[in-house]
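Q: Is it fine to ask for two folds in a single conversation?
A: Yes, each is treated on its own. Send the first.
Q: Here.
A: Result:
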Amino acid sequence: MTSTAVPTVMSLDDVPKQGVFSLFKRRRKVQPSRPEELDQDVVTPLIYDCKETKPGVYEWNANNSYYLDALEHPSTSKAQIFLLQGISPLVTDAFTSSRLQLPLDFFSSHEKNIVPNLGARFEGGDGTFFAKWHRYVRQKNRHWEIERRIAAGRPYNLDTVTDPINLRLDHEWYGRIPRVYRPYDPIRRTISGDRESAALECISFFWKQVGDGFVGVLVFDPVRRHKIVKMQYNLWGVEGEGSTEVVDCFVDDLDRRERFMKDLQTCEQKSNLSSLKSTIEKLIIQTIFNDSITILASLNDALDEIDLSMSQDDILRRSLREWRNNFGCWRTGLQHQSASLMYIRRVLAHHTVDATSTKSNGAIELADVDGGLAAVQKRVDATFQVLMSTMSIIESQKAIAQAETVSKLTYLAFFFIPPTFVTGIFGMNIVEFVDKLKVWLWVTISLSVSILAYIFLFWQELFTTARQTPNILTLNRRRISATVAKWTRTGYFLIREVLPGLVGLVIVFGVVGGFAVGLWKLYTSHLSKGAKAGVTIGIFGSGLLPVMLFMMVRIERKA
């Protein structure tokens, strides 16, 4: 007796869980991960000591010691300056809790985009000084587009409704470096496609007399950069290898800290170092002066372009939105610049002693910049008013053109109203009209009604013309000759210019009407279909032959 093996039915519980989930392991969706947000700003302060190399001769040298050790241990140098490029929480805590005892609002005021309202601090020989101004920068169009997308809350290069990381699409994600990213306002576009802008810049200065020495802290804005992270996914939607790129936001951007230290090293130091604070302030003011002059020149060039484009309607309509945004940014930036200059002048007034030191401390440069700002502000307001007036004129001309078009359509519709009215009356089911109305009667009544309608429509013009036309009996020979000459010229113009067009129009309508009547008579006749087709071809051929001959003659004449 043979035994038959019965297959056993296994339930899902009998299968190891690891084996079940291994079937779907490759198709399991991985939660998408957003690239890291902006890295924490890494701030490395530079330290420079001013030492006396010869009697009365001082030289700046880099101090390679760690800044935390330099903050805790007093220096033997005559002067010591800490140069910070950017701010981080670690550096803020270190300087506020050190022997310098920097006020906490010093760093918070530096991060703000406007000057502090409280002015300068003067407590026990220490003080603060904030300089905020706009400088000229040039930016590639790609980075301008990146900044626009970041500002709009869509920091990626795809125009999707939702975040492309949720859709697992290959894209680029954009970010800003550093953490405190100051705004910049557009000025104009260059011929090469780059953007000229006015970037906000800030330098904060803290000084303190420690015994016979001088200790200063200068905080600069770091170079603005864009962080570009390329997100790539494989076929299963799993994040693959990407790349991260950090590029400068502006073209040929300068490191302000290095430039400032080079300028400071070239300045002549006095034996008592009493003018060191004034020298630093003067260097800052000189930087503001140079950048402001460049910005004002660029703004004047942009205003010149707008003034020269006032007569070109297409350019005005195409650029109006961008110009209106630029005007708002310019007015705001100029007002903030004026407020910053007012703050700097107030601080310098506390620092100076006499008129000589006031002039040598940059007050003349600030006065020049202030006068240039006032002139540009007036021109911006005047150009904006002219631009709005010009756009009002353009819109008025557009409205007038639309009104004229509507008037033409009204006159055209008025031409068809009287015949339509007569047709409606003739189409009524009235016993007296049955088999008694003829076509000539409809034409006569329609023309009569149309003439009466046009008389009522232009009654005022006709009445005015009749009153202004003198009586023929009161005309002398000269006036009669002038009238005859005028009407003769009018008639000659009508015969030469209008009559050929009317004759051609009548001929065209006559030919078309003849063809239509002929075809209608042909297809209502009792001829066979073949005969009708042949006659139709003959009619169209006879009609197209003159047209072809006319076109050939014109082509030969042109050749």
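Q: Second one now.
A: Result:
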Amino acid sequence: MRLSRNHTKKTGDYLEGMISDYYFMQGKPKSKGLRSDSSRFLTCLQFMFAIYATLLLLYMSTAIDIRGRISQHLSQFSTVSHVQDVASMAEGGGCEYEKIDFEQKKSNDSVMIKLKMDLYQEVLDFQSKTIGTETLPELMAMKSKWDLKGGNLPKITVILNHFKRKTLCAQLDSLLNQTLPFHHVWVVFFGSAIETSLKRIVESYNNSRISFISSNYDFKYYGRFQMALQTEADLVYILDDDMIPGKKMLQILAHVAGTEKYKNAVLGSIGRILPFKQKDHSFPSYRKFRSKEAGLYLPDPAYEITLDRVVRVDFLSSSWFLSSELVKTLFIETPFTFATGEDLHLSYQLQKYRDAGSFVLPVDPNDKETWGDSEHRLAYVSETTVIFKDIVNVRDDQWWKALSTGYITQWASMNPQNIDALFYAHSLEEVQALAPLIQKFKTTTGKKAYLIVSGGNFCRCEDAAPMLKWPESVCTERRFKIIDLGIHALSGESNSEVPILQSIYASMKGIIKIHNPSVVITVSDIDQNVRKALSFATETSTNGTTLVLLPKKSISNALWIADLRSTALPYWNRMKLSISIITQNRAPSLLRLLTSLNTAFYLGDTVPITFNMDSKVDEPTLQLVKSFEWNHGPKIIRRRIIQGGLIRAVSESWYPSSDDDFGLLLEDDIEVSPFYYLWIKYAVLSYYYDPKASLPELSSISLYTPRLVEVVKERPRWNPTEFFKKIHPNTPYLQQLPCSWGAVFFPKHWREFYAYMNMRFTENAKENPVQIPKSRTNGWQASWKKFLIDMMYLRGYVSLYPNFPNQTSFSTNHMEPGAHISAKDNVVQHAKTDFEVPLMQEDFTKLLPNGKLPPASKLPSLNLFNRAVSLKGLKAAGSKLGKDVLECQENEIVLVNNETGLPSHCAPF
């Protein structure tokens, strides 16, 4: 296209036209009749010199504003052909264009093409099923906040960052011809060697909406985003100097950004999907050759990958379109480096603090005006040539730092991990305290756990690793083991707790979402603000992750946590143990019991204690109960008005408040081991909460190992260690007998027992219809235990018993005079040696089979008379007796409503 001129204009106008004529004639072919002798050539040179001198004088003159005239004349033409018309202007004041004298790179590596295409298809299939991937027509059909036809047009500030590439004119011309006009264009130059020529180009457009901003200091890649903070526009479009958008691009971007789905997103035309985990559990460099796990560059014509649907990526390159509000997010944390990586840092921060995604928009392959980079070769040449090793290493470090501290990449979304535990340490002292449990997890087959340290001035990975006897290389290799949050990136030297809380919460939220740990474990006396952040992160997770707070002194006694199944670990905080003490007039015995309870390990759990006193309680007992200090939970005191007797005192001492409330019933002549609570919690988590441990018959857990078979007349001695030596001498076992000398009762079965006892209670043993063959319990009078034995026998329920050398137990009975022992009507002799057992004073797990509780299916079971019988056989015996509250057929037992405990119906077993 040629520029036209008016021949009637004088002076400056005439000169402008003459220059224009000469300028554009240079590109025309000469006539065949034109001679090229030396005289004609000399005349031409003289003429050119005259024009040059005249132009120079006029340009320097203030009388004739030829610069303004030229600008005014050129501004009349707004088509893209303007770029072609002025392509040969002098370098000092006009446009130059990037030469693209090469073809788009295409790979002929069939293996590589297949690897890339396969990964791209996997990504697309996953996103199609989870978040949806729209085509360009589908995107444009979505309802948008910005009604471009109705006049609700957004204000868009476009920021062009230039350093040395010759693309400014092409970009400005494209922007001036957009189907949706921009509000402002800011052309920024930071430390550019060609700033003068770039500035002249901007001035030549003579457009008040186009401004230039320059600085001698090179603000590098973050400078343009810092400028974006100043805009008053609704949306910001930041372009690298290799991006020349098609004229429909602003309209497309604004429409998509106004939809409900993409309003909280950053949009672009080029993006990258970061590396995936390799078979050896490490992550490769994003530049690794011939590796599917190295990720994707999208679109990638070299591997025949074009985008006809929107794709979520891990970060965008070369262009970013987002709301001006979202730009602020880039500067929440100090970047890993200012030398590179602003693209990744933006997407990382947006996801971490705004839950905002990064999306590459699709294009119409037949319409370049819909492309964000109408000359993709410009962008691709930098992607394929800028491969300096030091830059690659920095960027590898940067994306790994982001991923390891909670950036949910496409790999993480497509491959959710499931680990057992995350440990968090805010100081080196906490690393040291947690070290035994961390090592136990690391050495336990099938277990997976990682350590997270705060980083910065608090606890660096490089300092923590040696404490665990790990090499410092674990801090730099791209493999999950120790994760350094580097919270100094946000908090710096701040004295406020807010940055620390925010940084830990934001990172832990992402880390938990990536790894799906069953538990997050830390010390109970951790900084309160850190504790809040960890609580927020676990409570808001959707995978049921539980925060476990362990007292430092208890950690060495809780190594069995590593032996719990990952399915049981999330229930760590669900179990609530309620201690119910039955007492009346044995103050010295009660003091001994309370002392033993107070010195036990409770793992930081809250454990309420209730004193149940009959009406005839004596003064010393009242004083002791009143003065007793219980530091592990609330203390409740209950006293009867009318004497109820032992049967009511025990059975009415506790009733479960929920299915997670377990009752530990203790008479005051009992004493417990320091490890009793650990045994209870370990067993409850293993056999009650673990969904994979199907043991509905388990109704209670005994702390005590009996030495006698108490239900037969002879009451012979019995040693389970000897009995089970062929299985394992110290295997725990199941028995159809409840324990009254220290036991934890399960909530569902205790409600069932209440309902049963209410239907069967009688003080006359002969009136009880349940007469278990050959059992001396048939004659027991005024015994709550007799009714519980009957119910367990009829319905095939069992208790779990410990089994250690010399019947060492977690509780013992001191056989002191009371309602039964030494009672006037009790003719049975009770020798202390038959009932008192040693208390466990050491870590009991090392005595268990393989150092841990066996699976539920491996527990041996005994009947009421200490004979080996299967669980099905126990139910068969109860069904055969047929004396339950409902009349059932043979091979049927009574089932109950678990919420009320009331009998529901008969069912086969």
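Q: Anything structural to flag on that second result?
A: Two points. The chain is about 35% helix and 15% strand. The radius of gyration is 41 Å.
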